[in-house]
Design a protein that fits this description.
This protein has about 100 residues and is mainly beta. The chain has one domain. Helices cover about 0% and strands about 65% of the residues. The protein has no helices and ten strands. The strands form three sheets. Strands 2-1-5-6 form a four-stranded antiparallel sheet, with no helix packed on it. Strands 3-10-7-4 form a four-stranded antiparallel sheet, with no helix packed on it. The protein has a two-stranded antiparallel ribbon with strand order 8-9. It is elongated and about 65 Å long. The relative contact order is 0.30.
Length: about 100
């Protein structure tokens, strides 16, 4: 049983038991919630493709909140004595898929 969900402007292929790091959601740790944006659902070798969505629900549980490793952005212009160094840490929510209905 698999499904394709959409969250945070991205699409993910999920199945029960999967753990994902997705764009940050404002939900407390341990809360169960559902994704309603299901684009594709497969059960017992029967595939249902949405136009644009499928009437299915993917249940998930929040495991943790955090930030990714720092990414360094360094811009440099030669012969102009111009340099700029910036760091960025993207926030994320780690979830576990519990079921697909």
């Amino acid at each position: 049983m698999i499904a394709i969900i959409r969250t945070g402007g991205k699409q993910y292929i999920v199945k029960p038991g999967d753990k994902l790091k997705i764009e940050k959601l404002e939900k407390p740790i341990g809360e169960e919630f559902s994704f309603s944006d299901v684009l594709l659902s497969e059960k017992d070798n029967k595939v249902e493709i949405g136009t644009p969505l499928v009437k299915a629900e993917v249940m998930a549980k929040v495991i943790s909140q955090g930030k990714e490793d720092k990414v360094i952005i360094f811009k440099y212009k030669p012969k102009k004595r111009e340099a700029r160094k910036v760091g960025h840490r993207q926030p994320y929510t780690e979830i576990e898929i519990t079921s697909i209905k």
